[in-house]
Amino acid sequence: MLYKTITYNGKKIHFQDEGHGNDKVLVLLHGFMNSLEIWASYTYSYMRDMRVIAIDLPGHGKSDIFGEVHTMDFMAETVKAVLDAVKVEQCVMLGHSMGGYVTLAFAEKYPYMLRGFGLLHSQAMADSNEVVKGRLESIDTAKINRPGYILNFVPSLFDESKRKSFHSEIKEVGDISIETTIEGIAAAQRGMSDRPDRLTVLEEAEVPVLFIFGTARLFGNNAARQGCSPVFYRRTRFCKTSHKEFRK
What we know:
Blueprint: E1 3-8, E2 11-18, E3 25-29, H1 40-46, E4 51-55, H2 72-85, E5 91-96, H3 98-109, E6 114-120, H4 129-144, H5 146-153, H6 167-177, H7 182-193, H8 199-203, E7 209-214, H9 222-228, E8 236-239
Parallel strand pairs: 3-4, 3-5, 5-6, 6-7, 7-8
Antiparallel strand pairs: 1-2, 2-4
């Protein structure tokens, strides 16, 4: 296991760098309150055939907190700093949920560094006013009872009808998430609530784009509507999972 750190703006970004070479590089970006550990099984499967870099985004895992707000653009800048440090000029990037928002910000800022990118249970639309309100209220909830907030949040990522069968996966995700501090939670929620609409990034992408999302909540799901739109439909792949069941 090759864990490394870089210093960015005086603080630490932690990441894992497995495999060899720069011909085929896969960069994995985790979701809210997760860490690079969420990708462990994928990292060790793919490292035989390519270089795999998984990054702890700011305020998550073993990476430092940089401020009261971690915008998706700022997180994308830290990802680029990691890639520059390990001399990766181009890669394929896959982002889960919040990591997908960061992937889109990266694609907008540094399109020349991508050979393709994918969104796993993520989407390009900005949050509605209702969702923004919910994000900001959740910060207050987490401040009152951080462990309770996390332990209630994690099961909601799984299809309710399957939660019993995913008991061990829910526990594993919970064990990772419980390490997230209130400062990390708040900075990420503020950053996600402030992100712009990036549908044009998808529409103007000159590289392959992959959408992966579950059919459990297909209708009313922004990720699904985005993937099913005429512009993107041929790029879309469906799978019968909910938000976190890719862990299975």
